[in-house]
Amino acid sequence: MIESFGKLIRQARKEKGHSQRSLAAILKLDFTYLSKLENDRADYPPKEDVIRSLARNLDLDEEQLICLAGRIPQKYEEVLKLNAQSMPMLLRRLRENPEFAQKVFEAANEEEST
Fold first, then answer.
1. CA 23 to chain centroid
2. How many Cβ atoms from other residues are within 10 Å of residue 58's Cβ?
3. pTM of the model
4. Coil, strand or helix at 69
5. Residue ranges of the HTH cro/C1-type domain (predicted)?
6. What is the CB neighbour count within 10 angstroms for residue 73?
7. How confident is the model at residue 101 (pLDDT cuts 50, 70, 90)?
């Protein structure tokens, strides 16, 4: 089970054989910022382009990593805006009703696999 954004990127970086400095150089980031991300100590989630670059270089799913970082992929922002009034209710229901959430996620996974 994935525990956090930081732990996932740290694990993937080590599996790829990169040091923080070498990966930061590839990504054109300060290695201290990468360290903050890996330790879940950054003041805010990284920008989407940084997350996508991390995912590409670490062979991780870009959209999954964006969501794990606490962001919403830009291509879904329009859907959220069009349904802005309903989104808080949907998110509450997902949080408060695990059975409902499971059904929603199962339906989404079915769509992906067909």
1. 18
2. 20
3. 0.80
4. coil
5. 9-65
6. 15
7. very high
